[in-house]
């Protein structure tokens, strides 16, 4: 069996691969490592007058990043 290049896969491709190959522990490790590397950013606070706009912008950004 050939070596799989998880780093070359998009997040969506890696997720799909994991669903199809549930016994591949290296794929799970690659996915968890990738998730761990994402930084946690605070985009707004509850009392922010621009709360809705900032949340919507963050959602749009996340959707375009996960393409």
Summary?
The protein has 67 residues and is an all-alpha fold. Helices cover 58% and strands 0% of the residues.
Task: Walk me through the structure.
Pfam families: DUF6887. With 67 residues, the protein is mainly α. It has 3 helices and no strands. Helix 1 packs antiparallel against helix 2 (25-37). It is elongated and about 55 Å long.
Q: Could you spell the SSE succession in H and E letters? A: HHH
The averaged pLDDT comes out at 89
Largest sheet: none
Question: Nearest-angstrom radius of gyration?
Answer: 16 Å
- What is the number of E strands? 0
Low-confidence segments, ≥5 residues, pLDDT <50? none
User: Helix/strand/pairing class, anyone?
Assistant: mainly alpha
Number of domains: 1
What proportion of the residues is helical, as a percent range? 55-70%
Q: What percent strand?
A: under 5%
- Distance between the first and last residues' Cα: 29 Å
Instruction: Based on Cα principal axes, name the global outline.
Output: elongated
Number of helices: 3
InterPro entries: DUF6887 (IPR054053)
Pfam families: DUF6887
Topology overview:
Elements: H1 11-20, H2 25-37, H3 51-66
Short descriptors:
58% helix, 3 helices, mainly alpha, 67 residues
């Amino acid at each position: 069996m050939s070596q799989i290049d998880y780093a070359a896969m998009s997040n969506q491709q890696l997720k799909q691969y994991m669903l199809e190959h549930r016994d591949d522990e290296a794929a799970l490790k690659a996915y968890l490592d990738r998730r761990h590397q994402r930084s946690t950013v605070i985009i707004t606070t509850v009392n922010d007058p621009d709360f809705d706009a900032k949340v919507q912008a963050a959602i749009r950004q996340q959707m375009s990043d996960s393409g």
